[in-house]
């Protein structure tokens, strides 16, 4: 089966004579119109608008219609559509997202660890993975940049960046209303309204209400979990008082109130008997197919709540024909209160409450120069101030016993992380002779972090004398220089090649799981760095019916920040590893005839540790665990592939009827740093299909689709806390699900 689907992907790619592309294409326009070439795709990967074919960066781009054809409701729907990217809902959380690109991401979900892939909405950086599971309800374009983006995007983009651009009121007059219904109680409503208030002012408002009952159920109580209940609203005001000045003010808010997100215990859950000494098996680990039934120790009302709001102001000044100044100011506030049943059972072994009250302020200036011919330069400065106070509780009344009786256990944590980040950058693009262009840039970044933490432990009888508080505060700063350089050659009007080298920097920090004196003495960890070297080719046919790209890369990745499990309640963070990662990525689209579009993506990656310094693997260490290995890099499957086919039938005066579908493949994937065997996912294939009817003038649209058509069961994430009750919990992707939507455009 593996060879079969790889052959399908490769065969689809070879149908396009050009090397491959980053974007799926627009569908047919009103009835009677026939497509003769693929639409032009413009991206802002280098902080300015350029054709996707001219950018020496591996970037995938999706417009509004392509996002619909992916059947994506949130950014998680990009899974499978971008080579060598792994994106999934965060472990045990309804509101966070875990992203790895080319083997680089954030292995620990706690807020004191920084992401390895930058998330941006309208050029505003979102510093936490909490609140980053964006609902896609008024998106103009979505771009995925692969590889380090340290010069133009800064820290924490070592793996790459995901950019969402929302609709501009001046460019999208009119509106739409859409209602979607499906199984598992899915019911969604979205709207967008935009228009000019005068010749110089335009406004838009967009909103979404997204609900479903969830696909996990308690067989005893009948309660549903892994559901969603989200409301989102965005208001934009655009101003253009003169020809050389424009500004956009954006206000947004999102509220989510969901039940627990439950996984499945994959290993026997254990209780430690303090006297007599021993281990008691509470529940065996599950094997075989999961019936999507789960139990929890939490009660009704203990769910997952989020409120995420913000404001941004983007201003552009055309100083003269050569110079343009841009300012991006933003403020964001994130509040979450999430109960997470880490052990995914009716026992209290690893049950936690994590509550954040984060805010961030940022300011960026960009000065662009364009001589109208062969030189473009960007100069910039960036500042961000972030505060992340949090309160946490850990419940473990079933973790310990004494003389056959349970020993109550509670841990409370109060911490506060403050980060100040400043940066200056410059980037120059110079066509020094016809058809040859060199681009070079450099960014200087300084990160300063202050961290305060207090951990209080409360034991029940007869161990109340062990109660106590461990507290510490620390501060540190790091500076980094992240250069980039590329050399680009236009072989013809339709074919371009490039070579590039880019450095990325992921900030250091402090261990947000430092619960013991030992942990506090070793709480600081250093930054990660990566150098990536890339060779790429982008081309299209002369008639613009075929377009594509190919990229080969090699990454040297050092000081990998690994959170490991040591002893009960002890979780050190080690700058443990050095990796080399190499891979190949192919993307392409072809317009076959006048109504059929074929697109394909193929990624191959070989990620390996050059070294992994882990004291737990020393046989003389008292906590030596033979089940731990570092043979595989987590979230780095060797193969990712996808083939999508779409055909439009013209119904004449009755509109258009479109049918489409895709097949995606993902190789073996490991879901934990420690390579626990039960937290791995064998290679699997997913199938999706949809049909769309568009009225003659595109006023009405009816869409129906099914995701995971074969009802494949597959793991997407894992919790690994083996030193606490042997917790090893897996989270699963969506089962087969169908939907139907009706949309009216006006």
TrEMBL record:
A single BP term in Gene Ontology: iron ion transport
Signal peptide range in chain numbering: 1-23
Top-rank lineage group of the source organism: Bacteria
Mode of membrane association: Multi-pass membrane protein
Subcellular location per the Swiss-Prot or TrEMBL entry: Cell outer membrane
Keywords associated with the record: Cell outer membrane, Ion transport, Iron, Iron transport, Membrane, Receptor, Signal, TonB box, Transmembrane, Transmembrane beta strand, Transport
GO annotations of cellular component type: cell outer membrane
Motif (TonB C-terminal box): 729-746
Residue ranges occupied by any TonB-dependent receptor-like beta-barrel domain in the UniProt entry: 294-709
Domain TonB-dependent receptor plug: 52-161
Family recorded in the similarity comment: Belongs to the TonB-dependent receptor family.
Protein name in the entry: TonB-dependent receptor
Organism: Stenotrophomonas pictorum JCM 9942
């Amino acid at each position: 089966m593996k060879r079969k689907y790889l052959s399908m992907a490769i065969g689809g790619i070879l149908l396009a004579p050009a090397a491959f592309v980053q974007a799926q294409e627009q569908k047919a326009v009103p009835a009677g119109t026939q497509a003769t070439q693929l639409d032009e795709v413009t991206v802002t990967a280098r902080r300015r608008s350029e054709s996707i074919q001219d950018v020496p960066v591996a970037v995938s781009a999706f417009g509004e219609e392509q996002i619909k054809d992916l059947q994506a409701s949130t950014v998680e729907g990009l899974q499978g559509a971008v080579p060598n990217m792994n994106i999934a809902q965060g472990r045990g959380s309804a509101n966070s997202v875990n992203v790895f690109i080319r083997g680089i991401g954030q292995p620990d979900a706690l807020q004191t660890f920084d992401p390895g892939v930058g998330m941006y909405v309208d050029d505003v950086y979102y510093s936490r993975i909490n609140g980053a599971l964006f609902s896609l309800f008024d998106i103009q374009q979505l771009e995925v940049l692969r590889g380090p983006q340290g010069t133009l995007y800064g820290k924490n983009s070592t793996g790459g960046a995901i950019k969402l651009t929302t609709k501009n009121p001046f460019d999208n007059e009119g509106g739409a209303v859409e209602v979607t219904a499906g199984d598992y109680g899915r019911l969604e409503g979205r709207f967008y309204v935009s228009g000019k208030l005068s010749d110089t002012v335009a406004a838009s408002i967009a909103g979404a209400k997204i609900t479903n009952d969830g696909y996990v159920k308690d067989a005893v109580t009948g309660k549903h979990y892994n559901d969603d209940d989200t409301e989102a609203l965005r208001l934009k005001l655009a101003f253009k008082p003169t020809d050389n000045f424009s500004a956009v003010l954006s206000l947004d808010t999102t509220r989510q109130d969901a039940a627990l997100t439950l996984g499945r215990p994959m290993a026997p859950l254990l209780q430690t008997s303090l006297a007599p000494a021993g281990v008691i098996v509470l529940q065996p680990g599950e094997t075989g197919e999961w019936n999507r039934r789960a139990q929890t120790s939490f009660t009704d009302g203990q769910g997952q709540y989020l409120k995420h709001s913000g404001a941004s102001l983007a201003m552009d000044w055309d100083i003269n024909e050569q110079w343009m100044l841009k300012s991006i100011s933003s403020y964001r506030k994130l509040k979450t209160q999430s109960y997470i049943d880490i052990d995914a059972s009716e026992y209290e072994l690893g049950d936690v409450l994590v509550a954040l009250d984060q805010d961030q302020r940022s300011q960026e200036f960009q000065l662009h120069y364009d001589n109208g011919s062969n030189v473009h330069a960007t100069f910039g400065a960036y500042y961000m101030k972030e505060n992340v106070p949090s309160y946490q509780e850990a419940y473990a009344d079933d973790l310990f016993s004494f003389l056959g009786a349970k020993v109550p256990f509670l841990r409370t944590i109060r911490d506060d992380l403050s980060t100040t980040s400043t940066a200056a950058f410059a980037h120059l693009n110079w066509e020094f002779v016809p058809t040859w262009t060199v681009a070079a840039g450099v960014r200087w970044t300084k990160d300063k972090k202050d961290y305060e933490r207090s951990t209080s432990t409360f034991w029940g009888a007869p161990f109340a004398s062990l109660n106590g508080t461990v507290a510490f505060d620390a501060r540190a700063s790091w500076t980094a220089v992240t250069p980039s350089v590329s050399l680009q050659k236009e072989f013809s009007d339709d074919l371009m090649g490039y070579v590039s080298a880019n450095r990325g920097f992921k900030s250091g920090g402090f261990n947000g799981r430092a619960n013991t004196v030992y942990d506090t003495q070793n709480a600081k960890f250093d930054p990660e760095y990566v150098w990536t070297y890339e060779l790429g080719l982008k081309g299209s046919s002369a008639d613009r019916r075929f377009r594509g790209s190919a990229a080969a890369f090699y990454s040297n990745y050092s000081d990998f920040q690994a959170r490991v499990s040591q002893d009960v309640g002890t979780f050190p963070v080690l700058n443990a590893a050095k990796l080399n990662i190499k891979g190949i990525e192919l993307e392409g689209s072809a317009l076959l005839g006048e109504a059929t579009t074929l697109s394909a993506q193929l990624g191959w990656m070989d990620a390996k540790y050059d070294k992994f310094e882990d004291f737990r693997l020393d046989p003389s260490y008292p906590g030596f665990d033979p089940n731990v290995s570092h043979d595989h890099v987590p979230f780095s499957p060797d193969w990712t592939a996808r083939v999508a086919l779409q055909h439009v039938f013209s119904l004449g005066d009755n509109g258009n009827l479109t049918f489409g579908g895709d097949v995606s493949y993902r190789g073996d994937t490991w879901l934990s740093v420690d390579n626990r065997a039960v937290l791995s996912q064998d290679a699997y294939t997913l199938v999706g299909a949809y049909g769309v009817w568009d009225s003659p003038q595109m006023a009405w649209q009816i869409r129906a689709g099914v995701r995971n058509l074969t009802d494949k069961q597959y793991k997407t994430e894992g919790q690994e806390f083996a030193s606490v009750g042997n917790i090893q919990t897996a989270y699963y992707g969506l089962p087969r699900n169908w939907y139907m939507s009706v949309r009216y455009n006006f």
